[in-house]
């Protein structure tokens, strides 16, 4: 019985789940989601059935049942993710359709229009004419599945979007991932069958991670193989290209997977807006192209078998396949798949609508062609290896007979390959894929009752039944068509060409290829365990590889942590100076808490694996968890700070401070207060923090979200495009206006004249420039037509108040009013700001972008409760600040000539307790304990008998200001010597007074010194080697500097 899959609510929709349901698993709508949909839907009395629409007519090719079910499921998921105002009966009907034994078989077309109309017609109770549906109204009625009918609005909602495209893509992508690992294993098997040089390819370094992962897989599969890297062998280009080809395909599949998965987590409207820019279609076409390249490379390796298996050309050459009437030949299938992909690509530039569904089907077609090519290559490799193994066994037996006939012949030590013929063996992993192919051999025979199907023992008894069947087919490919003459009821050859492939051989190749291809089916029972074993082998082979941190993360050394601690302390001090309190929240949240808050960046959220409980994701920022915290605990006002790690599945740029795991330092003020009072204090805090850190010249860019919306309204931007256009405007600090305008017009569908109108406000290279000193830009805007828009008028009023409050706090100096600032997060409702570095601490160009950002979000808390709590906040990007601070402090460790003059202090140690002589360590530990009790930071050293040179050198290198020294004579007088490392002086102190005396000394040290500068000893100062103590060191009686 199929397991129940829960749709909606905390359900995590991954692609594997879509595959499960598409292949028959039953579903159930989450109870909380059903309640929400019911509450949001119109009252039953307000339902107005649509006028009877004309059913769609389509004679196009049908999607298969799996693709159709996936399309219906994706349409259902989108409706469950957000508010669509549909009745619960409509959503539930789609679930009932999927759970019924009969399904709507949708029609394939260039776009989603026809299949989505078929779904809507089914809900309305009108079966689409000429469709391939097996779910007739009568059949569904027997199963008590009654169409609920549709209103005109409901039909419009159901027929919008690219949900069938997503469904087809969702069932194609997981299969493509499985196939690529299988293709890598088959390529390794071919390398052995062709006895190829692989060393150079496996030792090369590649740019992408996926390419290097492919190398790791090939290395594990071919480990200890005697059949690769022969002395006289040459590399095969079709194998040397495998890492780059398969790596590129893996990256294309991974990118498409992330995009499709991200779209399936969004509400219908957001996903529709994001998927309608052409990016999804191009991603799918890109994936299709990479799969075809993988198939083509497989075909090139197959062509290399021509010397061993001459008739393999029916697999690799379209003309030979056509001549042999081999319609299922990989060459012909690949040719057709290429034509399909090229046709869809041409439609991208000529068709009035984006051919997204055609692109998804093209990807599925390319996957099918690649699977056919890989299956054929696997078959050819096994046939060639079968011949090689038979030859090896025969050679070994002949050598054995020869030795028996020459008993007096000296016996030499056999080599790995042996003088009497090569030994036969494979690598560590390739036998796994070879065994899988061999397991299909009984299905190759045309006559199930023949000896071919049953197998037989060879004369020497060394070959297995399976090997015999493999060799029989291989020898047929070696022989000419005429050699098959005389076989009953089978024509000698196809065609008249001499040496043409025999009809019986073609038929058996078809039979064998079909069996091998079924064994490589990702959903079959055979391939999964084999790939799991291969993955385990790869992982075990990587055990000896150097460990490394995950992509987008890094380890921090003690020196780096010392710098970070200084930065954290300065930021925390500013927060506390302004009266903020500290809280903490979990590093992960319910996925539903985070969904729908970040616009296009929602796809960057890290989802955790479903452990059978709540569906969780790692937090993307600290703001949404704070809003949830305020709502959950019914807080009406709070000024809080929070310093913690957040996680984003972004493409990291380590040198520019962009990571996947990083700290944020947030300050937020929640509650109802006089206009712009909290906002002005937040901006003052930003300026104070950046001045305290002192990492260079900066400016805080500021704008107002309502002013942006008013500007777009005035410029003719449709309301539905406000947020996508905001996202484009926000890229102006990284891209030229021409690129941003192209994105608005070509990708996001904005009218060119509207884009040009926006350019008047956001460009910094045309007049009037709306970037500069806040009060001057405010005056410009008040005289502009924009000021007459009601939303803009209110925003300008708030900004007037804000700038007045900031001027009273001397906080305007670093503020710039900039109309091009358009923070992309969905939850901002008022003032928005972003701090950017203009120059580094050394006057150079900074390598980082924004170092702090934030804004007002009055509606975010209300998303988690029935009460809105207005709030405003800022987040300091400590990672980017840390990069600048690290460069500055590292530079301070060198003198003007560049020579090292100091080092970063890794510890806060104030006193080093050391001794001369044996047996002193317990006493050192006793003195340290007394110092610790007084709050002094002290070390005693782990060496049993340290030398003065080592102790003073350690203190000097690490910037420890004081050293306590003693030996036997000091202990006899109950005293120690306390040396001031900075001044080069020392004094004698009674042991009883040591804790209080040292505590007073360290109180005068002031702020921690981060850079320890090496002290140059004066010429008159005694060195340890010339001191009176050193002369007595042998007696360990006295400690001296």
What features would you describe in this structure?
This protein is of the alpha/beta class and 1041 residues long. 48% of the residues lie in helices and 10% in strands. It has 39 helices and 20 strands. Strand 1, helix 1 (15-22) and strand 2 form a beta-alpha-beta unit. The longest helix is centred in the middle third of the chain and has 50 residues, at 356-405. Residues 405-423, 455-463, 480-499 and 1016-1041 have low confidence and may be disordered.
Keywords summarizing the entry:
globular, 20 strands, 1041 residues, five-stranded mixed beta sheet, nine-stranded mixed beta sheet, alpha/beta
Mean pLDDT: 82
**Helical proportion?**
40-55%
Shape: globular
| Major sheet description | 9 strands, mixed
As a whole number of angstroms, the C-alpha radius of gyration is 37 Å
Contiguous low-pLDDT stretches (5 residues minimum) are 405-423, 455-463, 480-499, 1016-1041
Brief write-up:
Helix content is 48%, strand content 10%.
Q: Could you give the topology of this structure?
A:
Elements lengths: L3 E4 L7 H8 L3 E4 L1 H10 L24 H17 L6 H12 L13 H12 L12 H6 L9 H7 L4 H31 L5 H5 L5 H13 L15 H4 L1 H23 L3 H8 L3 H25 L9 H4 L1 H6 L6 H21 L5 H50 L24 H9 L12 H4 L10 H14 L24 H17 L7 H15 L16 H20 L3 E2 L5 E3 H4 L21 E3 L4 H10 L5 E10 L13 E10 L6 H17 L2 E9 H10 L7 H8 L7 H11 L4 H11 L8 E2 L1 H9 L7 H19 L6 E4 L12 E10 L9 E7 L14 E6 L1 H14 L10 E3 L6 E5 L5 H13 L4 E2 L8 H10 L4 E5 L1 H5 L2 E6 L4 E6 L3 H10 L7 E3 L14 H4 L10
Parallel strand pairs: 1-2, 3-6, 8-10, 15-16, 15-17
Antiparallel strand pairs: 4-5, 6-7, 7-13, 8-11, 9-10, 11-12, 12-13, 14-20, 17-18, 18-19
């Amino acid at each position: 019985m199929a397991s129940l899959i829960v749709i909606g609510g905390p359900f995590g929709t991954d692609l594997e789940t879509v595959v499960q349901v598409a292949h028959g698993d039953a579903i159930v709508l989450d109870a909380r989601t059903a309640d929400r949909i019911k509450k949001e839907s119109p009252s039953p009395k307000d339902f107005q059935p649509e006028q009877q629409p004309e059913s769609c007519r389509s004679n196009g090719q049908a999607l298969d049942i799996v693709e159709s079910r996936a399309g219906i499921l994706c349409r259902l998921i989108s409706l469950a993710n957000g508010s669509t105002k549909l009745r619960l009966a409509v959503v539930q009907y789609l679930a009932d359709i999927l759970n019924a034994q009969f399904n709507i078989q949708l029609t394939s077309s260039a776009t989603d229009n026809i299949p989505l109309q078929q779904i809507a017609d089914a809900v309305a109770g009108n079966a689409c004419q000429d469709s391939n549906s097996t779910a007739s109204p009568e059949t569904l009625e027997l199963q008590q599945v009654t169409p609920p009918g549709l209103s005109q609005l409901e039909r419009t909602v159901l027929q919008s979007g690219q949900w069938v495209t997503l469904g087809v893509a969702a069932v194609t992508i997981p299969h493509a991932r499985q196939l690529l690992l299988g293709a890598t294993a088959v390529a390794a098997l071919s390398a052995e069958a062709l006895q190829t040089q692989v060393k150079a390819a496996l030792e090369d370094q590649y740019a992408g991670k996926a390419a290097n992962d492919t190398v790791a897989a090939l290395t594990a599969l071919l480990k200890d193989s005697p059949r690769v890297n022969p002395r006289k062998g040459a590399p095969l280009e079709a194998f040397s290209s495998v890492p780059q080809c398969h790596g590129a395909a893996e990256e294309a599949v991974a990118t498409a997977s992330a995009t499709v998965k991200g779209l399936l987590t969004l509400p219908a409207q957001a996903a529709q807006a994001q998927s309608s820019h052409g990016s999804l279609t191009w991603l799918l076409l890109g994936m299709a192209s990479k799969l075809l390249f993988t198939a083509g490379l497989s075909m090139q390796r197959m062509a290399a078998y021509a010397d061993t298996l001459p008739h393999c050309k029916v697999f690799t050459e379209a003309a030979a396949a056509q001549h042999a009437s081999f319609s299922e030949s990989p060459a012909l299938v690949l040719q057709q798949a290429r034509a399909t992909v090229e046709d869809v690509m041409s439609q991208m530039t000529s068709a009035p609508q984006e051919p997204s569904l055609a692109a998804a089907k093209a990807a599925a077609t390319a996957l099918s062609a690649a699977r056919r090519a890989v299956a054929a290559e696997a078959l050819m490799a096994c046939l060639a290896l079968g011949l090689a193994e038979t030859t090896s066994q025969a050679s070994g037996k002949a050598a054995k007979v020869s030795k028996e006939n020459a008993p007096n012949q000296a016996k030499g030590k056999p080599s790995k390959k042996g003088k009497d013929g090569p030994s036969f063996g494979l690598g560590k992993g390739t036998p796994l894929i070879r065994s899988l192919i061999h397991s299909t051999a009984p299905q190759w025979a045309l006559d199930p009752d023949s000896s071919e199907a049953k197998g037989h023992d060879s004369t020497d008894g060394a070959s297995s039944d399976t090997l015999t069947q493999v060799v029989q087919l291989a020898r047929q490919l070696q022989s000419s068509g005429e050699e098959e003459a005389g076989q009953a009821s089978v024509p000698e050859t196809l065609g008249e060409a001499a040496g043409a492939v025999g009809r019986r051989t073609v038929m058996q190749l078809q039979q064998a290829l079909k069996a091998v291809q079924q064994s490589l089916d990702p959903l079959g029972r055979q391939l999964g365990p084999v790939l799991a074993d291969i993955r385990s082998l790869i992982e075990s082979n990587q055990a000896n590889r150097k460990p490394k941190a995950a992509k987008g993360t890094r380890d921090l050394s003690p020196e780096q942590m010392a710098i970070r601690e200084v930065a954290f302390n300065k930021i925390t001090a500013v927060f506390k100076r302004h009266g903020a309190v500290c809280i903490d929240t979990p590093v992960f949240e319910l996925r539903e808490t985070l969904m729908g808050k970040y616009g296009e960046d929602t796809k960057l959220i890290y989802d955790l694996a479903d452990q059978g409980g709540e569906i969780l994701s790692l937090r993307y920022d600290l703001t949404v968890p704070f809003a949830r915290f305020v709502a959950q605990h019914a807080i009406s006002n709070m000024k809080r700070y929070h310093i913690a790690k957040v996680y984003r599945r972004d493409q990291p740029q380590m040198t520019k401070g962009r990571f996947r795991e990083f700290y944020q330092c947030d300050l937020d003020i929640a509650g109802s207060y006089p206009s712009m009072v909290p906002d002005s204090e937040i901006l003052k805090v930003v300026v104070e923090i950046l001045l305290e850190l002192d990492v260079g010249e900066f400016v805080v860019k500021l704008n107002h979200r309502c002013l942006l919306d008013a500007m777009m309204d005035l410029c003719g931007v449709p309301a539905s495009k406000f947020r996508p256009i905001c996202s484009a405007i926000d890229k102006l600090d990284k891209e030229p206006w021409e690129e941003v305008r192209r994105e608005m017009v070509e990708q996001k569908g904005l009218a060119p004249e509207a884009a040009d109108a926006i350019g008047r406000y956001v460009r910094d290279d045309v007049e009037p420039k709306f970037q500069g000193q806040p009060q001057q830009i405010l005056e410009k805007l008040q005289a502009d037509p924009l000021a007459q828009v009601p939303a803009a008028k209110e925003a300008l009023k708030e900004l007037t108040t804000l700038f007045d409050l900031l001027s009273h706090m001397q906080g305007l100096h670093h503020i710039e009013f900039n109309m091009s600032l358009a923070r992309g997060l969905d939850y901002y409702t008022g003032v928005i700001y972003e701090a950017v570095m203009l120059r580094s601490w050394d006057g150079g160009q900074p390598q980082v972008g924004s170092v702090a950002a934030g804004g007002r979000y009055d509606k975010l808390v209300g998303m988690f409760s029935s009460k809105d709590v207005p709030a405003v906040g800022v987040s300091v990007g400590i990672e980017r600040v840390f990069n600048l601070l690290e460069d500055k402090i590292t530079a301070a460790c060198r003198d003007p000539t560049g020579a090292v003059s100091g080092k970063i202090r890794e510890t806060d140690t104030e006193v080093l307790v050391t001794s001369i002589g044996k047996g002193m360590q317990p006493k050192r530990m006793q003195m340290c304990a007394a110092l610790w009790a007084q709050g002094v930071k002290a070390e005693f050293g782990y060496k049993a008998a340290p030398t003065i040179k080592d102790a003073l050198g350690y203190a000097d290198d690490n910037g420890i200001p004081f050293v306590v020294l003693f030996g036997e004579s000091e202990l006899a007088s109950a005293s120690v010597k306390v040396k001031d490392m900075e001044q080069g002086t020392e004094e004698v102190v009674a042991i009883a007074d040591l804790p209080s005396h040292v505590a007073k000394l360290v109180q005068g040290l002031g702020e921690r010194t981060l850079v320890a500068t090496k002290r140059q000893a004066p010429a008159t100062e005694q060195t340890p080697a010339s001191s009176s103590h050193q002369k007595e060191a042998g007696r360990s009686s006295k400690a001296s500097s």
